[in-house]
Amino acid sequence: MPPSIHPVDLIIALRQKHLTPAIVFLTSRRACDEAMESFEHTQSFLPPARQEMIGKVLRAVIDQYPSIAEHPLIPTVQRIGVAAHHAGHLPSWKIAVEELMRNGCLDAVFATTTLAAGVDFPARTVVITQSSIRKARDFTDLTIGEVQQIAGRAGRRGKDLVGFAIVTPSPYIDLTVLTKGLTGHPEAINSQFVISYPMVLNLLKAHPLDQIQPILAKSFAQFQLNQRAEVLERKLDELHRQLEPYGPRVCTDWISQWQLFDHVRRQRTHRTPVRRNEPPEVAARFHFLTPGRVAGLSKSRGVVLRQYRSKGQKSPMVTLLRHGGAITECPAAIVTEVFDHMLDCAEAPVYPWCTPESIESMLRDLEELPPRLPVLPILVPKDELIPDSIVQTLGDFSCPTCPSRSACQKDHAHASKLRQEQHRHTKAIQALRTSLWHRFQEKIDALQRFGYLSPTAHLTDTGEWARLIRIDHSLLITELVRADAFTGASPALLAAVMSSIAHDDDRPGAFPRISTGLASLLAQVRKLAESLSPYEDPPLLRADIAAITEQWIGDPTLTWIGLCKKTTMAEGDIYRLLARTLEFLSQLHTLRDTHPALADCASQAIAILRRGVLEELP
Amino acid sequence: MTTDELERLLAQQPLGVLHRLARGRVHRHFRAGKRRLIELLLRHSAENRAGFESDLLALISEREARPAIQPVRHQRSERPKTSQPGHRLHSAQHEPDHHEPAASLAAWLEGIGVPLPQPFVPDPWQEDALAKLQSGDVIVSVPTGSGKTYVAVEAARRAMDENRTVIYTSPLKALSNTKYTEFCRIFGADRVGILTGDRRDNGQAPLLIMTTEILRNLLYDAAGGEIDVRLDTLGLVILDESQYLADPERGVVWEETIIFCPTQARLLLLSASIGNPHDIADWLTSIRSTPCHLIKHSKRTVPLRAGYLHPDGKLTPLFRTIGIPYGHPVHLHPEAKRLFARYEDETMPSGRRR
Ligand SMILES: Nc1ncnc2c1ncn2[C@@H]1O[C@H](COP(=O)(O)OP(=O)(O)OP(=O)(O)O)[C@@H](O)[C@H]1O
Ligand SMILES: [Mg+2]
């Protein structure tokens, strides 16, 4: 049995049961393309009348969007009545397929699940072959909401009496995800509020600092945080009630009193035996020194390969991989800083505690780390040990002779647990109420440090124009502008750098070479991006991606087909790259009052960029 | 909570809870073992400790509240590759509720066809949404393909009849383009405009289409004192596909748009089915000057049936019932169950073959 049904057989089965038109959701673009290829040699052609109808609809779309006139899929679409529709295609091609589907010309469309989101594209039947999708470079199970969006494309109002969602297995399918998705209640949605630099600048442009907190309080994020806080408040009330029987006794705060007494009592008996001789900082840090952790040493850096305790003394030890490849065993105390940075470490049970490949890759990563790395904030627990002076004064506690001693002893465990919980909830509630504001203040701090905001949190002259850059990596872009990085750059160079900042996909491919001018500018951008990394995640800054844009803008006679031939990137991806570059450039164009030369360069780039396929749609 | 306490609490949780916590926080969390996962979570928690802790506590209390559900959850988190279909099949046969015989394929396939053409009559919920828009904001949460566009079109028509500007936003440029064509057909090309980052086609038209980001930027400019589009005459803002509010990267733009939306403009949120539309309605009511009405239903207009197609071409209903048994994911059709168990056996990676 093949792992999944052959596309040709699938369509035959659907046609036979009158289940067409159908949308077949496949796991990848490649699967869609292969499905189309598998039809090239079938002999089951559509009757001439239907072929003619498809031709007619296509001609109408081609009139509007000439770029698809020569599309390689057209013959198969017309002869067989099936099409593919995914992110690798041009928008105009997708419009053509949607139009064909709306006119009832097709029996099936092979698509990826990106189609499920918001495109008006219904059919009688939806075929589902997967239970997870790739999100941010990771496969995650479909949510109930997503399964219902996908299945919901089946059954067109006014055209179908019933709709069908058909599951056909492929490797890695989890049927329970799908059955739950089909029968379940969609998940609640949650706020994804993040505070960005442009948000802070634009809010402070329009409102004084003391009005910001009420504005943040209007977010759905705060609404949901409040909901959680209310749940905790109810728990707090309940705890309060439970604590009632444990009110004041001989001492008002008998819980703390007993706790201290008890603690001291225990410590006195255990005071002499072997105590681990490790300062609290080392103990606190030790938790974080796990394999892959980048650690700062007095003169250099290393990566932790394993942590352990020494045999006799049980002192905390780490095995470190250092620059140059030396592997050393050292006491954990030699680590001076724990960085907020991990490298991928494939652990192994024996020396050198990880796989040779992973040593190699970590060494490489270690060399390439930026000079500044964020340090992990580690709380060092205080008061681990009660000072000797208190222990000496054990005699001063009245507990041993107190009349409520037995009651205190009996109730203490429960009462102090309740009280700890009370403290925890109180702290959590406070955090829920103020966390957005704290995050906002962190951004203010950073913007002040860079000079976009004055010490009184007003926009500086720089802040006034910087607030117009409202895209990802805004800090990098405004810092580049401030550093005059683009002075004298050609439109092609400017657009190329913008596209390497805009592009966030790491799919590999073969691409054209870049000019030396672009290479050196990109190196400069990379350096700045790395120095900004504590404040903003650096973009991928792929040189090969920049090269595509450089060629498209640098040579206005280059045709779309010519550009596509220079790379292995899919048409749709090139289109999206250029469209996103356009967005970034148009943001630079808004700086025309303060940076006329740059804005002019950006609008020249926009004018050249928008040609051919990129002119077809708004 | 101190970091130590947090770490200890994390260590006490089953792996499933940690993975749920890691969703959206940690890349590739499925590949991490427990220790590494805790490490990664702790690292991430530094960013928003309060949110993280309360998520964790919420998950813990959720687990405590529903101990009965736990085994099911456990089973779900297993990949089918490692589960034992034979065993699951057996245990499921002891399910109650299986009095009626399972649906036959013929019955399942019955009724396929095209309905007779009928004059267009708006659904009661569509009328209701339009009526409620007279007295406040509206959020519509209904299944895919129900007819939300009709509500958008009629609401836009009414606002334009009162000489008010209407803004329609969608999350995707592709969808904006489709709607642009559609609205031009309905209202005439001179009354519809479209705005993108660098282009403005008929920007003076009473109905403007744009992506939500563009609208957010317009609202920023207006707040900063630079009126661009006629926001003072803005009467209606339609946010289509507003379940994007929960998009990890872009969701914040929907929140900003709603927060900064001028008070005199009505908000119409169109969303696919979501779990907590009440929350959204309550939120809007709490921050806007007029109450927000919720229009919601989960019944599909065109009934949906689910099937299972085996790679050898054999088709069977997926569930015992002809329709989808909402709330009962385990009511699988015996034939679908048998075929899928066989599929899992046959595609088991070599070495694990039983
Ligand atoms: N009252 C009605 N009677 C008959 N058909 C209707 C009615 N309302 C809408 N329709 C039709 O239903 C179909 C789907 O409508 P629409 O695209 O508005 O759905 P939607 O709710 O926006 O779905 P999606 O979630 O995909 O955006 C359209 O073809 C529309 O003409
Ligand atoms: Mg819609």
Model description:
The complex is a heterodimer of chains A (618) and B (354). By secondary structure, chain A is of the alpha/beta class. Chain A folds into 4 domains: 7-183, P-loop containing nucleotide triphosphate hydrolases (Rossmann fold, 3-Layer(aba) Sandwich), CATH 3.40.50; 191-269 and 389-456, no CATH class; 274-379, no CATH class; 468-616, Orthogonal Bundle (Sec63 N-terminal domain-like fold), CATH 1.10.3380. Chain A has 23 helices and 12 strands. In chain A, the strands form 3 sheets. Chain A has a 5-stranded parallel β-sheet, sandwiched between helices. The mean pLDDT of chain A is 89. Chain B folds into 3 domains: 1-65; 124-296, 3-Layer(aba) Sandwich (Rossmann fold), CATH 3.40.50.300; 307-352, no CATH class. Chain B contains 14 helices and 10 strands. Chain B has 354 residues and is an alpha/beta fold. Adenosine-5'-triphosphate sits between chains B (120-123, 126, 144-150, 272) and A (120, 157-158).
Q: Which tags fit this structure?
A:
heterodimer; A: 618 residues; alpha/beta; Rossmann fold; 4 domains; five-stranded parallel β-sheet; five-stranded antiparallel β-sheet; 12 strands; 47% helix; globular; B: 354 residues; 3 domains; eight-stranded mixed β-sheet; two-stranded antiparallel ribbon; disordered C terminus; binds adenosine-5'-triphosphate; binds magnesium ion
Which structural class do you get from the secondary structure elements of chain A?
alpha/beta
- Our count of helices of chain A gives 23
Global Rg of chain B: 25 Å
Bound molecules: adenosine-5'-triphosphate, magnesium ion
Residues in β-strands, percent of chain B: 5-15%
Largest sheet of chain A: 5 strands, parallel
Q: What is the level-2 CATH architecture name of the largest domain in chain A?
A: 3-Layer(aba) Sandwich
Strand order of the largest sheet of chain B: 4-3-5-2-6-7-1-8
> How many domains comprise the coordinates of chain B?
3
Instruction: Count the domains of chain A.
Output: 4
Termini separation of chain B comes to 48 Å
> In the CATH classification, which architecture of the largest domain in chain B applies?
3-Layer(aba) Sandwich
Morphology call of chain A: globular
CATH topology description of the largest domain in chain B = Rossmann fold
